[in-house]
Design brief:
By secondary structure, the chain is an alpha/beta fold. The chain has a single domain, classed as Metal-dependent hydrolases (TIM Barrel, Alpha-Beta Barrel), CATH 3.20.20. It is built from 7 helices and 9 strands, in the order βαβαβαβαβαβαβαββ. Strands 1-2-3-4-5-6-7 form a 7-stranded parallel beta sheet. A two-stranded antiparallel ribbon has the order 8-9. Strand 8 and strand 9 form a beta hairpin. Helix 1 crosses helix 2, helix 4 packs parallel to helix 5 and helix 6 crosses helix 7. The longest helix is centred in the middle third of the chain and has 17 residues. The protein is globular. It binds zinc ion (2 copies). One zinc ion (ZN) binds next to loops.
Length: 254
Amino acid sequence: MLNDYHIHALSHGEYRHTMDWLSLFVKKAQQEKLSEIGFAEHDEFRHLISFDNIQQVKEQFPEIKIKTGLEVDYIPGREDEIKLIKASQNWDYLIGSVHFIDGWPFDHPDHKGKFTVSDIDEIYYKYFMLVKQAVETNYFDVVGHLDLVKIWGNRPLTKTMLYYITPVLKIIKDSGMAVEINTSGLRKPVKEIYPAPEIITQMYSMEIPILFGSDAHHPDQVGMNYQEAVLQAKRAGYHEIVIFSDSKKQTIKF
Ligand SMILES: [Zn+2]
Ligand SMILES: [Zn+2]
């Protein structure tokens, strides 16, 4: 039993939720032998989500579970807006993600240059402070691509990754949130899963629940590189993932 809870059928607004388009994501998931998928669009495109068409696709493919989540940008000061977004629909889950540091879209290729002229350790410190704040809002069910800050391959110089991340993991553990094992890092210059294997091992020792996500922006990317994701999760000790319905967590074997 494997899930892909991080699917952007709208990509960055280039596509629409037509039945044909949504069906391609489901068919790819079936080819990849996934038991469950979740459409989790970027919250800025939530007005383009067709709940009706997702419902119809659910009825068309009863053999696979289809959920509706949302990937929400955590930016300090957005808390009230996020609360409203959460209350606006019966989301199965919300993924909380940090894509901006002080207004800087650090994971955007047009803006990666700032990494070469900045103090990398300060960037890591600020990024993980934001992830910690996101977790503390208690609005999210899943932490998105936990160590996204490594995307372009820039590593902290004076401290280890675990130095920055261990305090955040403690807060995640207390929150009850799950961390996604997100394979999109393998398609990025860093060429490493989010979070890194050493962090997955640390998460297992802290009994933090996980689930899987590809961050697909196209049907071809559904379930991509799952062999590596499953290998790293099992190597760390995991044999269970969590799934969500209406923000309620359930554990299944994988
Ligand atoms: Zn993201
Ligand atoms: Zn995403």
